[in-house]
Design a protein that fits this description.
The chain has 207 residues and is of the alpha+beta class. Helices cover 45% and strands 13% of the residues. Helix 1 packs antiparallel against helix 2 and helix 1 packs antiparallel against helix 4. The protein is globular.
Amino acid sequence: MRVARVRYDREMSYYHLMNRVAGEAGDYPFGDLEREKLFQIATEVARFHSLDLLSVVAMGNHWHIVCAAPAEPPSREEVMANWRAARGADAPEPDWDNPETVAKLAARMRDISCFVKEFEQRFTCWFNRTRPRRRRGGLWADRFRSVLLEKDTALWDCLTYVEMNPVRAGLAEAPGDYRFSTWGRMVGGGTHPFAANLVRHLRQYLG
């Protein structure tokens, strides 16, 4: 029996999202190329959605994302901007004068399930297409998990937990040494990939 996901739409809400691949325990199908692509696709898909990414960590057989979802759907102007940023100038555009069309897109952009669905579908298509023998079928073991972060320190604790995954797995001595994570990208490149989001939301979350 499928259980409805916990969602909170009355104020800004924070989520820890995660999923792992199907297969036997100990299978690690994601090498450097796959982990790099997973991080890249998550960042690209977020351009369409009104969710703010705070942390992304790509592991050998699973991924973690921490994000913020606004209480209200994006405005018509924001919907148009997100659409054009994600689809490009040459893509056929929706009927922006139709309020129902705009409302549906706005609701989709705020929905964590829609974000993960597009993210996982795009990655799966790329993964299946690029195998030496073209792969078919599903890649993920189950529906993704989502945890609503509600307690006073839950967001900070979750960010720390997610970024420490490579250290706990023995893949790095420090989180900054792992380049397929938000913290690793900041240490390696000198800039946090979601710096503006992180500063804004930590200030708001911590008061």
